[in-house]
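Retro notes (design track)

What went well: tokenization of the new backbones is finally stable.
What didn't: we kept losing track of which sequence belonged to which structure.
Fix going forward: every design gets posted as structure first, then sequence, in one message. First example under the new rule, 216 residues:
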């Protein structure tokens, strides 16, 4: 029987991900893990957007448009390659920090760390389910227009994108890769699993995450 320690010590980032995507039931478990991270002040600073299908293409276009703003001379081939990065996995969970600024007891850095711990919870949950993951970030995580596309609060901080795949994953060498470490938080914000576009509104607190099927 695999123990929690085995899961932690055996985790490694996948070098490549492919189909199939995690099932709805698996996503529920992974997201539940992300709602149960250490959280000073019980502020529940995490926000998640789950992208599949057309939602991945929406993100890809936003990433390509950002590249074009940054590098106006970029060729069509370069822009297309950037757009296709969003298709490196069948599911992406975007994690963001919804910061309470000026909190008298919980500084912003602790709120961001709580989101990082929540993402690690999800990575470990996915690993325990046999689902490959990679934790990615970059310029899109800090761009206001990309945040708007994802329906995120512009005052928050987009943390990272966790790429998921339930199929065989080619692992990198050794556990823990190079990415960035259980549970006392109350029910946090709503989590919606979207089949296409990300949610336009922020989540309200729920007992457990919910899975919604919508269309863009």
């Amino acid at each position: 029987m695999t123990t929690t320690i085995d899961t932690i010590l055996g985790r490694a980032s996948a070098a490549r991900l492919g189909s199939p995507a995690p099932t709805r039931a698996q996503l529920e478990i992974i997201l539940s893990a992300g709602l149960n991270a250490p959280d000073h002040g019980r502020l529940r600073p995490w926000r998640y957007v789950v992208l599949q299908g057309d939602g991945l293409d929406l993100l890809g276009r936003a990433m390509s448009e950002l590249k074009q703003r940054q590098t106006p001379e970029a060729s069509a081939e370069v822009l297309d390659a950037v757009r296709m990065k969003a298709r490196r996995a069948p599911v992406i969970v975007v994690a963001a920090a919804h910061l309470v600024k000026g909190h008298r007891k919980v500084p912003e850095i602790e709120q961001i760390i709580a989101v990082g711990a929540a993402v690690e919870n999800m990575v470990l949950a996915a690993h325990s389910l046999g689902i490959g993951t990679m934790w990615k970030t970059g310029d899109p995580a800090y761009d206001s227009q990309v945040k708007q596309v994802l329906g995120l609060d512009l005052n928050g901080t987009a943390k990272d994108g966790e790429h998921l795949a339930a199929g065989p994953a080619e692992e990198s060498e050794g556990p823990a890769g190079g990415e960035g470490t259980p549970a006392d938080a109350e029910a946090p914000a709503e989590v919606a699993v979207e089949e296409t576009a990300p949610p336009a509104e922020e989540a309200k607190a729920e007992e457990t995450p919910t899975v919604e099927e919508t269309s863009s």
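Added context from the reviewer: Residues 18-171 form a domain with the NADH Oxidase fold (CATH 3.40.109.10).
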